[in-house]
């Protein structure tokens, strides 16, 4: 819609000149543009959605409307089937609306047939079975606003307010509670999908299990997700957060590994500020009665410093390696990285963490990532693709130290986000397949006493920002460095998260990710190839193919088998 308005404006007489002036302003003075235009729009949008969500929750019986909305999606898919169109299906949600950085050319190039999936509501909270059933466009902010006051949370609640259940389920979702609960999909008990023949099915560990197992990492290529049932657990109103500043890379990595594997803390996270300096953090749920009020810190308040700056201050203040403790309200903790979009906002609004800005306008940030993407000029898009890195890589925990060195060598950018992930092995006689994530080599025995499942600990390293080479005005080749990091990750049997830019070839991609079960499910549930293959959606090289007839990609996949 907004992009149509922009397109229409561009076609007006004198628009060329005005457009040049406008884009120059938007590029050169990005920070001011964001403050003056993007922030107010973001706020209005949020207010609109909050009011809408409140009204829907209060006055409408959401489940009944849900079935109608699902019918509508079924009808759209049946119409596509009957039309005989060879265009592949994807959601009509604009590429700019997604938090993921890629621009998704297939959404605008006319290569795809788009299905509108307007599913924004929380459906039912089942306190007996401890689950919440939601529609896929429900986002993390909406869910934590709803569950926290009731004393509940979902076990893996990724940090940014705008991340959606659908994206986290069909893509990937990780949080610093993932050392206990695994990925977002590990906490999901049931899915409802509309398949390419227009039928609506639900699947779980006990029903249509083969389909259920194939959904994580499938990136919307098996069907349209229409509802997700997620486990909920009791939460407490505060988190006791302990900060451990580390000044030696070996000690830092060892401390992080120890806390992740012991599982004494509910949350384990680390931020690295240089090759040697990092702050390891462990968090545990506490009740209000346990809070030491002198150490309470409501980090979510509008005038509070950005969280990554706050954490860095522990490093500067505490050269003696002693730990410090703070008590943080739960929602403030969950969304600690929302306000500064991890640390991406620093480049967009450089004055954003200045005390004066925070006191006057701190309540208005962050701008919505979707509006930031929508208002990117071509030049900014190019800068993001060539001079900026957004990557998350999962590597076995034992490789943490080595991987940090590789990141230093290739990207040299800080802070880095470090987050644990415990990969449980759910395979059994009935479902011996692993899907997408290969069976880790180290899974010989359960991790902790009394645990039934075998598992292996991984760690996610996230690099978001501008590499040092670019800051130093030296040459930086995003593709070449990206490929070097991918090569390393493949070598240590790790995985690249697919929301970001991936430069792998199809063969590399298929050797990093196990396609055996996926391919089977793809031919069983999407025999007519209405959806593309994962590779065609997420990898740069695959996306290029899509524009010139996505058919080819699927054909190649079939030949391989
Ligand atoms: C600044 C930033 C911070 C981030 N922080 C985190 C973080 O803390 N933790 C984390 O885990 N990840 C994080 N991510 C990455 C994030 O996990 C991915 O972007 C994720 O896929 C969710 O994004 P989204 O909700 O925008 O989904 P999208 O990117 O829009 O969707 C991801 C995939 O899911 C599919 N999909 C979505 N809805 C449906 C549906 N209804 N039916 C079928 N398929 C569907 C889409 O086709 C798409 O391929 C971050 C990314 C950025 C840029
Ligand atoms: C809990 O789950 C059981 C079994 O799936 C179901 O029969 C029951 O209705 C559920 N409880 C509620 C309150 O929905
Ligand atoms: C979640 O996804 C991962 C990766 O595909 C998979 O190994 C795991 O078994 C899934 N969890 C559940 C509960 O199905």
TrEMBL record:
It comes from the Eukaryota. It is a single-pass membrane protein. The chain crosses the membrane at residues 31-49. Keywords: Membrane, Transmembrane, Transmembrane helix. It is found in: Membrane. InterPro entries: Diminuto-like (IPR040165), FAD-bd_PCMH (IPR016166), FAD-bd_PCMH-like_sf (IPR036318), FAD-bd_PCMH_sub2 (IPR016169), Oxid_FAD_bind_N (IPR006094). Its main location: membrane. Residues 48-235 form the FAD-binding PCMH-type domain. Its EC number is 1.3.1.72. It holds the Pfam family FAD_binding_4. It is an enzyme of class 1 (oxidoreductase). The keyword Membrane applies. PANTHER family: 24-DEHYDROCHOLESTEROL REDUCTASE, FAD-BINDING PCMH-TYPE DOMAIN-CONTAINING PROTEIN. This is Delta(24)-sterol reductase. It comes from Tetraparma gracilis. The lineage of its organism: Eukaryota, Sar, Stramenopiles, Ochrophyta, Bolidophyceae.
